[in-house]
Amino acid sequence: MRTPHALLATAAALAATVTAPAAQAAAAAPAPGAYYVQSATTGLNAADRSGAVEQRRPKGNEDRQQWTLRASGSSYVLESTDTAGSCLGRSGTQARTVGCASADALWEITPTDADRYTLKAPGTDRYLTVAAKPSGANYPDQLAVGSSGDLAAWYLTPVGAVTRPMPPADRRTLDQVTFLTAHNAYANGVDGGFAPPFVNLFPNQARGIERQLADGVRGFMLDIHQTPDGAILCHNSCTLVSKPVALWVDLQRMVDFLKAHPDQIATVFLEDYVDPGVLRAELARVNGLSDVLYRPDRTGVRQNGWPRTADMIAAGQRLLIFTDHSRAADESAGLTRDSFGVMYQREWTVENYWSMGSGASASDWSCYSRWYDAGTNIPLTRTEGAFRPLFVMNHFRDTTVTATATTDNTKLADRARRFCQPAARAKPTFLAVDRYDLGDTASAVSDLNSYVYP
């Protein structure tokens, strides 16, 4: 008899053949229309900055990042949607905006695979490129005109992508579904203490874990800290926290819910400050965890893509657990978390930067990778063959203020569609919010679950 893991691996392979494009061969240049010119290396967009063309954080229809592609003879031009007659071009070794009638505005656009392109100056061997990264720094903002290579690979991401209807329940894959996710789900003031007294005045959520599950929350962000009692749920530290909740207690609530609702799927994200041995012992306290735990590392996901949710349900494997901890640190300690079913988040997901601003200030809707800095480069657009990471879309502030959270949550679907979806070239899998009970979070999830991003 095949094991559930083997069944899921087979199902994932079948799903890949159904959901993958019929032909992965490189296509011609895209049709005329409005696009973001997006670096395949950094995930950042080419933007007009007072004549300079720089890579900037994806920001929807703000920040002069949209370009209208059209043919010009045997070449193409990309005209700014903000300034008529101004096109993405070049001057010497730098990318600049120039008059659209100029020869320096012309580009030969050549596909390099199914969805990446090069932009080459006609009659030369010079390409639009990200400048080489200095040691210990980010890639420079100023875009360059230079040699070919990985830094000269670009996505032309449609501003208004044509979506497809969501497949029926028995055909949709995990990465096609969007799940409502509670940021700092444990910090609710209902289940127990979560922070020192003053911080307790600003809970991220207003309802306990069991109510969250009943309300349709299916993603749970939890901070765990190590104490003599094991892995405890606290914000920043457990010092001065009255009656904190142990991790195993909340996980048991989730496992019990999944056992009672065999058609549901849930995911846990751990902001993880405990030793791997402590976490393993904590998980061992959860009755029935192994029955529902889903292991993407054992089911061919990296080779075949994510499985159908129906196949996960049939196998009974419906709880994913991710950690933000470092694999390298665990390898040095001699025990990796994925050896007992906790996946390293950076290997399986992409995630936008978490803060939209302070609790009462103007919002920053730009959508860029949380893991893009001098030492790390995991763009939201990352793909690896058939494997596409799940996209965690963060939509919350430094501090939870009720009025601000209400306003932000009414704009959740709009930010997802116009800002974060094109930034990641994918629909969010997890919509992470504070105070999910405020605003229109459920309708945003419903909206996103009505279609599939191409």
Automatic annotation (TrEMBL):
InterPro entries: PI-PLC_domain, PLC-like_Pdiesterase_TIM-brl, Ricin_B-like_lectins, Ricin_B_lectin. Keywords: Signal. Residues 64-132 form the Ricin B lectin domain. Residues 1-25 form the signal peptide. PANTHER family: PLC-LIKE PHOSPHODIESTERASE, PTHR13593. This is RICIN domain-containing protein. The lineage of its organism: Bacteria, Bacillati, Actinomycetota, Actinomycetes, Kitasatosporales.
